[in-house]
Amino acid sequence: MSRTATALRLGLREYARTPVLLALFAFLPVYFVAVFASVAPSTLVPVHLPGGGTVTRATADAVVVLVAPIVTALVVGITGLFVLRATADADSRLVIAGYDVRSVVFARFGVLAVVALVETIVTVAVALAFVSPDHLGGFALGILLAGATYGAVGVAVGVVLDRLSGVYVMLFGPTLDVFLFQNPMTGSTSDVAALLPGHYASELVVAGAFAGDLPVESLGWGLVYLLGVGVVAGWAFVRSARPA
Question: Could you tell me where the beta strands, DSSP code E, fall in 119-220?
Answer without folding.
Answer: none
